Fold each of these.
Amino acid sequence: MDFNHSQKTLGYIERVKAFMDEHIYPVEEQIYAETHKLNPGGDWKNWQVHPLIEPLKKKAQDAGLWNLFLPDTKLGKGLTTLEYAPLAEQMGRVLFASEIFNCNAPDTGNMEVLYHFGNEFQQKKWLKPLLAGEIRSVFGMTEPDVASSDATNMQATVELDGNELVLNGKKWWSTGLGHPNAKITIFMALSNPENDKHSQHSMVVVPLDTPGIEIKRMLQAFGDYDAPSGHGEMHLTNVRVPKENLLVGMGKGFAIAQGRLGPGRIHHCMRSIGCAEKALELAMQRGMSRSAFGKPLMMLGGNRERVAEARIAIEQARLLTLQAAWKIDNLGVKNAMVDISAIKVAVPKMLEEVVDMAIQIHGGAGMCDDFPLARFAAGARALRLADGPDEVHKGMVARLELKKYQ
Amino acid sequence: MDFNHSQKTLGYIERVKAFMDEHIYPVEEQIYAETHKLNPGGDWKNWQVHPLIEPLKKKAQDAGLWNLFLPDTKLGKGLTTLEYAPLAEQMGRVLFASEIFNCNAPDTGNMEVLYHFGNEFQQKKWLKPLLAGEIRSVFGMTEPDVASSDATNMQATVELDGNELVLNGKKWWSTGLGHPNAKITIFMALSNPENDKHSQHSMVVVPLDTPGIEIKRMLQAFGDYDAPSGHGEMHLTNVRVPKENLLVGMGKGFAIAQGRLGPGRIHHCMRSIGCAEKALELAMQRGMSRSAFGKPLMMLGGNRERVAEARIAIEQARLLTLQAAWKIDNLGVKNAMVDISAIKVAVPKMLEEVVDMAIQIHGGAGMCDDFPLARFAAGARALRLADGPDEVHKGMVARLELKKYQ
Amino acid sequence: MDFNHSQKTLGYIERVKAFMDEHIYPVEEQIYAETHKLNPGGDWKNWQVHPLIEPLKKKAQDAGLWNLFLPDTKLGKGLTTLEYAPLAEQMGRVLFASEIFNCNAPDTGNMEVLYHFGNEFQQKKWLKPLLAGEIRSVFGMTEPDVASSDATNMQATVELDGNELVLNGKKWWSTGLGHPNAKITIFMALSNPENDKHSQHSMVVVPLDTPGIEIKRMLQAFGDYDAPSGHGEMHLTNVRVPKENLLVGMGKGFAIAQGRLGPGRIHHCMRSIGCAEKALELAMQRGMSRSAFGKPLMMLGGNRERVAEARIAIEQARLLTLQAAWKIDNLGVKNAMVDISAIKVAVPKMLEEVVDMAIQIHGGAGMCDDFPLARFAAGARALRLADGPDEVHKGMVARLELKKYQ
Amino acid sequence: MDFNHSQKTLGYIERVKAFMDEHIYPVEEQIYAETHKLNPGGDWKNWQVHPLIEPLKKKAQDAGLWNLFLPDTKLGKGLTTLEYAPLAEQMGRVLFASEIFNCNAPDTGNMEVLYHFGNEFQQKKWLKPLLAGEIRSVFGMTEPDVASSDATNMQATVELDGNELVLNGKKWWSTGLGHPNAKITIFMALSNPENDKHSQHSMVVVPLDTPGIEIKRMLQAFGDYDAPSGHGEMHLTNVRVPKENLLVGMGKGFAIAQGRLGPGRIHHCMRSIGCAEKALELAMQRGMSRSAFGKPLMMLGGNRERVAEARIAIEQARLLTLQAAWKIDNLGVKNAMVDISAIKVAVPKMLEEVVDMAIQIHGGAGMCDDFPLARFAAGARALRLADGPDEVHKGMVARLELKKYQ
């Protein structure tokens, strides 16, 4: 395992950092505050993208810092998962930064799906505008009425009727559903109950303006609507799309989902690591600049011990994630499944603890919007459930361990 | 220590439970949802109290379940801290319930201050309408520009100028400041820097419509404005009030604060225990009613172990709090300071862990407003900072321990 | 629940404290050191009781501080479980103190069994000398070849053959087996496999010199033989005892075991609390008397926070145990089963953490025999397995919680 | 950072594994049991090395698996710290294995000191027989009468008197002092109090048979004498050695100590990781082979979650240690100090938790000598104090973090 950054990666790290220094950090607080004011509640139909976002995207595109996540050398920058990882870390320091580089979830995952599994028609119709950052997309997997941690519980259905696919079911926690530019969702549903467990589901691309789709509401995750992107609940009733919208084939949903999740978790985890670094940085700055009982806060009681624990936890989380990235690149997603589950468990927990420490150092300021810490905390907590609860992923890790002894 | 509930207490527990069964639980979800819709963001000038609240308050008053927290037999119900404790626990199960019984913070603390330390004029003018539930009040202690965990950092000032007190300074996290009925704040400030450390501050009652008071904004605590009550930031610039508004005397602020905090922490902690019981109840219901991998969620993996840990933690927290209440009643607040610090540390941490477990069992539903769990989590986390960060209270507990060996 | 100590209890606490001050603490270190030297390894046949022990027992008997655990007013002192609890706490401060007062496990449990379930013959023959402190006894339950956390796994058998009971099987972790005065064991075994799950086992009193009993070895628990008492492994091969040695009747083993365990766990837990107090005391003394980096150790980094956490944990553990004791006394063992499981989980964990903190403050000295801390640590860890692993007891607590929702 | 094992390393891993498979594992249990019987207590003067040890050493030497730790290509095998790391991991699986390969502490550290800092005379006299495995050595640093976590507390002295050095002072926790072959100790003491803090101490090689050295006793660490090597207390009274025995020069003790500790901690940590792997392996085997409540133990409750947590923790610990090794090799020990402190904190804690889990799965068997788990636990706990308590190392990590903000 070589975690060394190649010259190419080092160059990109420098360029992403420089871009953030020049263009993003100077407007970070402004965009946080104004986005919040522009989108005060759950009234998603009126949500607006901050006016600085599109110009920033344009700048990133012009700077050649665009679609960095995509391994393709033409459509992306030809970076491996391991090479892209430190760039995702940099982006994770600012809540909206990955979007500026067209590297934000769930679009990245959807683009990967279309890139790897879409046919020419699908790529032209949907991958192209996604890669251009012109539209945004949604991924519909989790359902409100069942425990979605067990995918076999899925109730949504897709049936072939002549040349059309008929879709029914409810999805929620569909990320990005509230975004003004959200145009399509990938919809996963039961199609072939007669097949074996991992060949029963299919994935279909569904334009969001198709009749029969009702967006019920946006959901707050720990008080955060994450506007103007949002996590929504949508109900599909006899929604009809042409069968050309089917990805790969009936019953291939699981196979596609597997491939999609691997790199996506690396991205999530590396962003979380960047986020943790930012939280630690904020903690240090606050802890050195405010005093109580005659000393900087940071020098009181167990605070320095907690800083050390944070530093150690961040280092371990980064190494584990880089190892998983390396395995994806070198052994394939399938042979990295356990590693991908392992980081899914370890990294959000680390982030939660580091952010919690940072909030405690900040006192009341840490709880409100004067700092991004409360949103970091909400995000970290949500990640312990997103893509399956930690417990399910621990089960995955344990299963492999058990295999050695059976 | 006798933690047995007296017949009187048992009677009140029954009555509070019956009232909640009949009047509060049936509208719990409705009030949560509609209050949220009525008060969508931080625009506190337009915040509204849910129309069911005042009628419910009237009903509680008629039922003799009013001002239960106040030990006075005439103005309250003559309940000791220990006797009131289990009633606070019941109220803690619903976010708005304590208000219905006129037992909500910070009004309870302010009423206690006025009851114990207010003169006849002050009691008539402010205690009376507070006890009647006609007005609401605010407590201004924490400041935005310094580490308020060290009270000697306080920058706000109060000076005597003829017959008037002149107030200057900024306060934030002033609970209840956004409420339409909030009419006064108790304001704590530096008045006598020449005195010894615990005699430098004074407390003044300040009507919120006094010129020079500017309410800057309401603060979100972990995404929650807690509307229509809220936690606000106010700036006082040369605010003048008659010297009759001074509580007790110049330099008496700390002595008053000490007395105020003791029972208030019992209330907070008992409500937290009720809140934890509710969270555990929700976890059990969800965990038994949803299934994955062929079993109710609750029967999977380590879930039952976590339920047991929650039950044990709740029991221990309740006993520790009852012990502190007993000591306040029997040994006085001053001799219970360590116990009061101890519950300040132990109970919010317990609540945080129980709620976290409940959220995990709920999956995505636990993060959004379909259940009160996300708000419970926000409240629990905030309590680790409110009234001083845990670390300061651990310092108090350690100090007493150290004394034994010095 | 009234946890107040009665005048009677207060008197006994004073007397036990005074006895320990006068007679036990002055020889504590000497007895630790010399007992260790007298009994250097696992060669149990040569184990010797320290010569000061018997005289100390005599003194305690003369002082009326004897058999304090037994609720009987004639044979014991008529103390309830709750009244005895604080005395056990005092005894727990010194590893051998409970023996001085004839209040040591497993004799207490065995005396309780004989007291509650023994017939006149059995009481005269075995209870009398045990109460006199003339002999010691053993309890044979756990088995080496199966997971004994599930009692239905038990492989030892007892069969009626004419007027004799024939016993076969292996037991280990039989506490006290190495003691020179150990004369009998209570032996639990499968007798009635045809019965329902809780009526299949029987308990028999077996003199240790009966032919067919082989004591295989004494077991170290984390490097500690606990000489000269010890935990042993014994194999019984066609051991024959008269059927008069059967307790209550065939198939009554479980019922007896249930009754035995309740008060015994209170004793264990209260001793653990005394042990934790002693560990905290040692930590404070060491932490205040040694310095590094210019300060007493106790004033460095997070040490005071850890002291506060220890104090809070001890208080909570004590209250939970007193509550369980109160329930045993007032509601019966059966209705206190969950509470008894709860303290089994909570108290050893608390002890482990407090002792671990104390060891860390002591540095190298905490690991070796200069202080009793390493043995406290071994004992605490063992308690997480003794009487069933924590996980089984969490299962008990969860089961009751689940019942409320089924 | 390239953690990839070179072909050379891969070859050595295979050979070490094969050697252990063929020669060590088959006698592992036998040597554990018989060594324990040979050396029943603290009577170190009669301690004996198990008769199989020397023949095994000879075999390892013949197999070219000797002094693998030493980077020198002639005296050792020319392996870098990173290359040696996985070999140390393999050795860590068996308590006595590192000795077989002449890679055991504290001899490795002492050999490194003599290799890097010894002059020709010193190397010929002491390094040579150490490299040959003919003698063993001791390192005298920690002192009984002061908090040795602060090295400036050190009370032992060394003074130049003509051509002799005069040594006085007490040392304890001197590892290997009880070994029959222990012939020398490196002794660190205050020599130049007038110098700046890091130039006040010197290191001297002292033959253990020099008059004035009294070995007071061997110390148990959590019940384990670690015979026949042991950790001892020695008192030096006017011990005189020729000044040729001084390492480097007066006042150079700290500089030598720094260099010594880096690779040593990598070795310790990698052995700990091997030890954790072994503990997890034992847990899996026991957990799959014993059943309760109708299932293998491993399938009950939260056990699989704990296995997953163990696996994740081991992976993270290994990566962090490999990173530190890589930094030592590529950036120098000085630039890896924080990393070395970080693994000192993270790895023993990980080991403690993994071993604790394994013990819990084993039940009573985990506590006694039937498995090496209790000794693993003692070792893990000791490592949280050895080479400085965790708190001091957290301070190191925090200091570097603070530097970034000062």
Note: Residues 212 and 239 of chain C are 5 Å apart (CA to CA).
Amino acid sequence: MGPGAAAKYGAVAVIVRSLTSALDDYPHTGNTNYGNNPKIPAAAISTIAANKLSELLKSKVAQPVQFYLKDNCQMLPDVLSYNVVGEIKGTENNNKYITIGGHLDSWDLAEGAHDDGTGVMQSAEVLRIFKALSYKPKNNIRAVFFMNEENGHKGGTKYAELAAQNHENHIAAIETDEGGFTPRGFSFDGVNPALVQKVNVQWKKLLEPYEVDHLIPGGSGTDIEPLKSQVPSVILIGFRPDSQRYFDIHHTPNDIFENVNKRELELGAASIASLVYLIDQHGLSL
Amino acid sequence: MGPGAAAKYGAVAVIVRSLTSALDDYPHTGNTNYGNNPKIPAAAISTIAANKLSELLKSKVAQPVQFYLKDNCQMLPDVLSYNVVGEIKGTENNNKYITIGGHLDSWDLAEGAHDDGTGVMQSAEVLRIFKALSYKPKNNIRAVFFMNEENGHKGGTKYAELAAQNHENHIAAIETDEGGFTPRGFSFDGVNPALVQKVNVQWKKLLEPYEVDHLIPGGSGTDIEPLKSQVPSVILIGFRPDSQRYFDIHHTPNDIFENVNKRELELGAASIASLVYLIDQHGLSL
């Protein structure tokens, strides 16, 4: 929102220092929300470039500093695209659903490996694990690859609309969109604190040996959030991996396949599968 | 110990597949213990090379497979080297010590960045943090850079000998030698389970918001272990970071500075400093 705010005070363009604790040459992209302000050019530069610019501005020798900015960005019209949904049918509750999802779209400056290729693969992997174990869930288990998370989350909105329209009773929805790093736990979004307490009493001990035992109140994810208003009974859950490296990678040219660790990715999928199993077997209510 | 065991059965040399879950081209080094068996040549190859060799051995076309191994390894005589010790004097207990250590030596196929450059830097960083905060500890706080961990741990042995000789009463010794990754907790080595229980009751809540709250029984480290026999009152503690990537790096040409994440390294040092502060303030006994 910075560029819009700056425009109000007469700025002709805005340069943003990329938000990362790493000192590197990767500028970060992301959404710009101008509100009703003039749409002046806005660009993020890398932390190394920002330091250089800052030094130049402070230097006595380099004055006056000239900054040449040419910006070709534009918003193109929306085009038709789709969510992708895979499902294992439940053996007992044919109208109850547990959904696991990530998103298919990504910013175009990289592959979107962690944001959110890993989430998509983990969602699919939960179903693969259940098939490999010949586990027959009581409830329908869905892996959803959401479309358009980064640019308006129309996929998540449509999914929630259809869930309501088709009277699909979602017990829980889990989103994995914080990177494919070592799993640490799960956060429960806007639920009764007593439920978080109950989950801790019942399941923390089971997850502790794997160090995936941080079961806390917190956010879930952009794609599943629209379910909240459409399917009031749903419990929204965010998968929480180790986040320390995420913003060195997120929305940068550095978000590539080589920066995903296979073992960490698989541990995350196994953790989500474990939670889905527990919910499927024991439910998730007070 | 494999090569010695194989030699007993007539092996003329041994090739070991490197122990990692990564599929890469980095052979791992490490100690070989022949016991009283003939010292036949032994080498580790990378997982990619091991897969290739395995395929060749199974292939009908490639028979017979010839493997040419030339090994120049030799053990040179020991030379004089030193531990490095830094200390902040305690304000109350002038003969009580809390020691934090890592080791200076590393295998020569890489920089030893994670094994154990990060441990050495974290040990120094605990003292720097205390100085930066103007914290005056009650007890003497020592950072020890141990020598010769990889090849006989003579530095750790000598440190323990001198501690006993000088009647230094070590309350606790903490070793950081499992990589400079995101901190997860601490393991308490061979202590009364009631003490681990007490530490959890008193301190787990303080460490939980930072997710450094796994306070469990377990190992400590090679360098501080000799203290156990010399200073019976000492509590040995191992710093436990996220370990998932460690054996992709450990003892390989991949153990380089570029593979250390600055933020994760610093979080580890801050966690160790926090534990040292708690021990310094409240002691560590039943």
Note: DSSP finds eight helices and nine strands in chain B.
